[in-house]
Structures are given as structure tokens and as C-alpha cells.
Automatic annotation (TrEMBL):
GO molecular function: GTP binding; GTPase activity
GO CC aspect terms: cytosol; nucleus
Name this polypeptide is given: RAB, member RAS onco family like 6
Classification via InterPro entries: P-loop_NTPase (IPR027417), RABL6 (IPR040385), Small_GTPase (IPR001806)
Name of the gene: RABL6
Length: 269
């Protein structure tokens, strides 16, 4: 899930169209509410096709309202509607990457970046995109100003990546770089999924190993534990780990990883 954010008239919807392979439109039409589409993207030169959900986010949507007090059911009258916008939804929920856009010719659009960029969750990678590169002669925001702001953000250790690039939706400048930027959230998502799978496997393996079937007493006997004797396994205590029941429920092992399991230090015949 990739979220496109920025102030109005910064080219968010134009980028949203470009990512779908649609042409650039000269006419500016304000977007009424959040738009979502799915595009196909591939990682580097692999044949794997990744489905990317792209959100064109509106901070405050426009509402359709009828004029005056509605006294009767008139089908010709526009009804009041709640717009789907960032005030209504948490757009960062399950988000894997953010494209934060501004217009390099308008200072107030960069002020939006100054205000909103620190609000992005620290685990989400962000590409700050300076749009309207084709109008560079009217530039008021310098690249060094943007990079200096990004470099001096107070972020906790382990936070994800921030990148800066410039673009032009009119001539597609910068879209190739943005395509490469998608590698970062994609690889980060793969890493998170694999870590979750490994933790799940570790819980299952350790829960199975901690059970005491017949025939294992030869191993435990050398450590001073006899089947039918004490109900506490001595191995964790010998290794300086907390004592656990011989047959704990799975919740005892939620925070144990495969590498840190003391049971793996035993040689089981």
C-alpha cells in the first residue's frame, strides 16, 4: 500500500494517473475525496508481479449540499454526503510507503511537508517528491533546503528511510526513480513477513520440544531430572533462564526466539 499525500494542486492525482499509465491532463480538477487503484509492479528484473495499492489522499474532502432547508423529497436536489478523506480514515493504517509531494514553485506547499512529514509513522519509508520540475526557472524551494530538513528531523533509532527526488508529471521526469523507490517498502514488507513467519515457527518448534515423551529420560537423567519426578525442567535454570513448567502452554513461549531457546542446547538422542 502506497499513499500519495500533499497540499492541493501539487500533482497528486496527476501522479496517480501516471502510475496507471494514463496521460497527463493540463486541466486542473480538484479531487473530491480519496481515490484508490491497484497497479502491477515488478521487483527489479524478476518475473514476479506485485500488486500495489495506490491511494490518492485528500486531506479534507468536498461535501455536496443542498441549498437551504430541505422540505420535501426532490430527486433533482443534491444530497449531503460525507466525503472520504484523511479526516475520516487513518490513511497510514497498513501503509508500506508514502510519497509526499510539493510544488517547488510554491512555498506554502513545502510548508505542508514541514508540518506533515514528522507525523508519518517511523517504520514507513517516505519519498519526498518536489514536483513541477519542468518549471525550474520559477523555483523557490532548493533541493538542499529539503535535504537539510530531512537530515535534521528528530527520529528514533531504527526509523525507516526518507528519500528526496524531483519530478514532472508533464514529461514523466522522476517516475523511473519512484519506480526504484518502491523497492524499499517491498523489501521491508518481505522482511517483516519472514520475521513473523520465523517467530511463528519458533513458537511451534519450542512448544513441541518442551513436551516430554517417553525415551527422553536418558537425556534429562544426566541433568538430574527424572520422569515422574520434579515437574520443572532444569535446563533453563542451568543456563540462567527463568524456570518454566515441563509442559507449558504456548503463551509461555511467545517472546522466545528459536536461537535463544535453551532447549536447543541439549543433545537429544
Amino acid at each position: 500500500k502506497i499513499v500519495i499525500r500533499g497540499d492541493r494542486n501539487t500533482g497528486k492525482t496527476a501522479l496517480w494517473h501516471r502510475l496507471q499509465g494514463r496521460p497527463f491532463l493540463e486541466e486542473y480538477i480538484p479531487t473530491q475525496e480519496i481515490q484508490v487503484t491497484s497497479i502491477h509492479w515488478s521487483y527489479k528484473t524478476t518475473d514476479d508481479i506485485v500488486k500495489v495499492e495506490v491511494w490518492d489522499v485528500v486531506d479534507k474532502g468536498c461535501k455536496k449540499r443542498g441549498d437551504g432547508l430541505k422540505m420535501e423529497n426532490d430527486p433533482q436536489e443534491a444530497e449531503s454526503e460525507m466525503a472520504l478523506d484523511a479526516e475520516f480514515l487513518d490513511v497510514y493504517k497498513n501503509c508500506n510507503g508514502v510519497v509526499m509531494m510539493f510544488d517547488i514553485t510554491k512555498q506554502w506547499t513545502f510548508n505542508y511537508i514541514l508540518r506533515e512529514l514528522p507525523k508519518v509513522p517511523t517504520h514507513v519509508p517516505v519519498c519526498v517528491l518536489g514536483n513541477y520540475r519542468d518549471m525550474g526557472e520559477h523555483r523557490v524551494i532548493l533541493p538542499d533546503d529539503v535535504r537539510d530538513f530531512i537530515d535534521n528531523l528528530d527520529r528514533p533509532p531504527g526509523s525507516s528511510y526518507f528519500r528526496y527526488a524531483e519530478s514532472s508529471m508533464k514529461n514523466s521526469f522522476g517516475l523511473k526513480y519512484l519506480h526504484k523507490f518502491f523497492n524499499i517498502p517491498f523489501l521491508q514488507l518481505q522482511k517483516d513477513v519472514r520475521l513473523a513467519q520465523e517467530r511463528g515457527c519458533a513458537v511451534v518448534l519450542v512448544s513441541e520440544e518442551v513436551r516430554m515423551p517417553a525415551g527422553w529420560d536418558c537425556c534429562w537423567g544426566r541433568l538430574g531430572w527424572k520422569e515422574g519426578g520434579s515437574q520443572t525442567c532444569p535446563v533453563p535454570a542451568l543456563l540462567g533462564r527463568p524456570l518454566l513448567p515441563a509442559e507449558p502452554s504456548p503463551r509461555h513461549w511467545v517472546d522466545y526466539s528459536l536461537e535463544s531457546s535453551p532447549l536447543l542446547s541439549c543433545s537429544i538422542p
